[in-house]
Write a structure and sequence with these properties.
The protein has helices at residues 2-10, 104-111, 114-136; strands spanning 12-16, 31-35, 45-50, 53-63, 72-76, 88-89, 93-101. The chain is α+β, with helices and mostly antiparallel strands. Strands 1-2-7-3-4-5-6 form a seven-stranded antiparallel β-sheet.
Length: 137
């Protein structure tokens, strides 16, 4: 919640990286912070919408669409052998990566998992059992 509020105030969006396609710079479990930009350059690392998901890859070339106001880009993960299958239009770009925080994404993945809920329930049971045991004394 605190992360969401900070992101809103700074106009930033934190994203959890779920693959190693940008290895070694960005690894699975890292948290990237993106900011919307008016312009994107070759070499920028961007996050973009793709088939209902979000991908973070590097811009490798600009594709001329013939329209002044529209740009398409070719992207590629640093660890991938070839460029991405489809181009990315400017309207699908969510922002440019400005910060990479190693491993922090793993913490947020864990906090959102069912195992964390099980862990909290287990702690609650132990606390209640301790209170019952102390009440009997």
């Amino acid at each position: 919640m605190l992360l969401a509020v900070a992101g809103y105030l700074l106009k930033a969006k934190p994203l959890i990286v779920t693959s190693n396609s940008m290895f070694p710079l960005i690894k699975r479990g890292d948290l990237v912070v993106i900011f919307k930009s008016k312009q994107y350059e070759i070499g920028d690392i961007i996050s973009f919408k793709n088939n209902g998901g979000i991908i973070t890859h590097r811009l490798v070339s600009k594709i001329d669409t013939g329209f002044e106001i529209s740009s398409d880009f070719e992207t590629k993960g640093d660890a991938n052998q070839s460029s991405d299958f489809s181009s990315v239009s400017n309207k699908n770009i969510l922002g440019k990566v400005k910060f990479i925080i190693p491993f922090l994404g793993f913490l947020f993945m864990y906090l959102q998992s069912k195992y964390f809920v099980y862990f909290l329930i287990l702690i609650l049971i132990f606390v209640l059992l301790g209170k019952i045991k102390n009440a009997k004394k």
